[in-house]
Amino acid sequence: MTATLANRRDRDGGPGQALRGFVARNPMLLAAALLCIAFTLTSPVFGTSGNAANILRQSASVLVLGLAMSTVVLVGGIDLSVGSVVLASATLAGIVLAEGAHPTLAILAGIGIGAAVGTLNAVLVEGLRISPVIVTLGTMIAVRGFSLVVLGRYNSWVEIKGPIFSDIARRTVAGVPLDALLALALAAVLWFVLAGTTLGRRWHATGDAPIAARLAGLRIRWLRAVAYIVCGALAGAAGILVATRTGLISPSIGQGLEFFAIAVVALGAGGLPAGRLRISQVVVGTFILMMIFNYMTIRGVPGTWQTTVTGLLLLGAMVAGRLLQRDSGDISAGEATVDENAGLSQMGIRLSRSALLLATILLASVFVFINPRFATWPNVIALVEQNAALAVVAVGATIGIISRSVDISPGSVIALGAVVAALAGQAGSPMPLSLLAGIGTCLAVYALNGLIVGRLGLDALIVTLAAWIWARGLAVSLTNATTIGFDMGFVTFMNTPLAFGFTVAAPMVGLAFLAGWIVLHRTPFGVRVYALGGDPRMVRQAGIDERRLRLMILVVMGAFTAGGMLLMLGRLGAAAPTAGFGLELDAIVAVILGGASFRGGTGRLRDTAVGVLFLAILNNGLSGLQMGDAQFFLIKGSIILAALTLRACVQTYFVRRGTT
Question: End-to-end CA distance of the chain, in Å?
């Protein structure tokens, strides 16, 4: 009888049911508590008040950057420029201080430049309907270049001096660092906005049910635009906190922070849940990440392995979050954009695609004019050789984007595959077996990503983000951040000219595009790829196993990444753990510039080839001018944004003509 009554209380909402419901809603809060207890019991230093203050101080800027990312994730977008905004904000604040202005003005300047970048993102994403991933990637490059150019005028170092900055960096209130209190105060303000204001409720509705919100009369594009501006301003505030903590502004500030901002949000929420994100989840995710970093530092774990653990932790958290939230619907990343080709006439589509080709021809003409060596045959050969790996990876990226499986891990996977191949060679394996080990590593990483994406329904973007982190960290850890030479026979073969000065890289690029065309247009698999990207319901209604299809798509993409690994290993002649950095982003840019829709379902390899050619000419032409990294990033990012704007304006013009 007693057992029956207890069971009835649980069913009627008793303490047991309430506890289970709380755990289901807040799994990462429980994980944070368990981690804190375990770390305290296993380390006499971790639980001290001094170390707690240290964790809080380290968490301040990361938390604010996570809050910035959460605003755009909430409305179904994403912002890859926040790390560059941190550098721009810290740089501008430091320069304003160096010029003798009041510290308050320096803080306002730092936050203001963040808001300005957010406004630019809002105009391009919501005004011109360009994918937020590709827009914020362009601003990430351009803003970092701008910051480095400005910082270079001060010998690339600016010291932070000012009473307000000193107080934020050193003062405590009741034992709590002031910068941590400021970060928590910003979290409280954003929590109030989301939970207690009309704007917050409308943001939730925009991300959770955009069609219903639009039918209810909400101004969806305006609401998303405000979110990008707020994101930029908060990223600027994070830059101020970074400046106060470091006391010295250098070119390395903010590098890679955009991915850790995504990691903080995904770690706390078990994904990137548009419309359903809570500020408490961002706070929990931040402290989990920083506690683990702190504990590993106390234990003497090298920084490279810390990066690997962070990526694997993020992956595990997303898997656990998905398993615990199976009844809560899709928690994958949203995409704050519409189909770029919607409403276009056939003439408009053709002219939109031709716009990039015209821009490519114009860009090449400019480089021919300013650098006579650009049009020489040796430089043409170098242009092809230098960008062969990008071209091959871009074929896989095209398949991924068509099927809505955006992959940002190829650069890291290429580095890891090359490292495994080189280590196998060092251990005495024959060259063919070493290469097979590297290829197998690439395919294994993609198979793991495919299993998680297919089985759990997580967005490929955040799954491959975790791989981007842990695979790169593992490559650096396995080599102790050193370069390992590879078999000279293979290197000689890969660099021996075959015809007209071109090596085996040129035919490999051609074969990759041919293989991609056959896969997409001459096999049932290709039909399913387009169907999955256009409307997943078609795939389900046809009786196709969607989970298996997504796994196959990732494995096929892994094969093209493995091809890029072979090209890069042969070209460099060694396995460098930093090789391929940024390659994944260039591949995405090439595909989107070529005209593929980030919403999936559309895209052609011939257009991707034009996008690759555009980037190859841009990279080669800028390198030939022998400019510094600052100018390179600034010009490259600006030209990418200009090309996106040109394409979007052509599309917008024909959409309007089609509706009049």
Answer: 74
